[in-house]
Amino acid sequence: MSIKIGVIGLGYVGLPLARLFATQYDVVGFDING
């Protein structure tokens, strides 16, 4: 079974969190800068 994680908002918290999860899981990040 493959766990996939989505992170919405790749700012101060989201980007490091996505990188941490990416060490173990498939991760997709989404961000709108505006």
Automatic annotation (TrEMBL):
Query: Source organism's superkingdom?
Result: Bacteria
Ranges annotated as spanning the membrane: none
- Any GO MF annotation of the entry: oxidoreductase activity, acting on the CH-OH group of donors, NAD or NADP as acceptor
Q: Which Pfam families match?
A: UDPG_MGDP_dh_N
- Residue stretches making up the UDP-glucose/GDP-mannose dehydrogenase N-terminal domain: 4-33
Q: Which SUPFAM superfamilies match?
A: NAD(P)-binding Rossmann-fold domains
InterPro entries hit by this protein: NAD(P)-bd_dom_sf (IPR036291), UDP-Glc/GDP-Man_DH_N (IPR001732)
Q: What is this protein called?
A: UDP-glucose/GDP-mannose dehydrogenase family protein
Q: Which organism is it from?
A: Flavobacterium aciduliphilum
